[in-house]
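Q: Convert this sequence to structure tokens.
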Amino acid sequence: MNALANKIGRRLSRFHYVRSAIDDRADLSAFKARPDWRIFLGMFLIAFSFAMCWPVISVLGAWSIYYKRPWIFGIGAPTIYFLSHLCYLAGMALCGAKYSMIVFRWLTRVGVEKLLGAKSRPIAQASTVATDDPPATS
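A:
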């Protein structure tokens, strides 16, 4: 099984994206910086899209039952769902792409390194990755 995983890791490491993630030692250090206004606005839009959609659709369903007018739900629910989806897409466009790429590069590096095994990594990196202790500083 380890031979198969190693073979898969070697094949994956041929791709430019994977090789650059490994060579650059992709990490999650970008999450330490304070986010700018675009990130906050994007997160707000994503959260607002979730908070807006299903409660409003539920209220529309209740109204359509109470008033015996199914068109309230039939027209209102898809409209609200569409607006909620647009709000979510705007939020993802503002903040999702940047952080998604950071996380995917890190996951790629970690996943391929696990497939390759500790023997394939440089000695200094293999020793720090193998232990759970933080590196000693002087």
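Confidence is low (pLDDT under 50) at residues 122-133.
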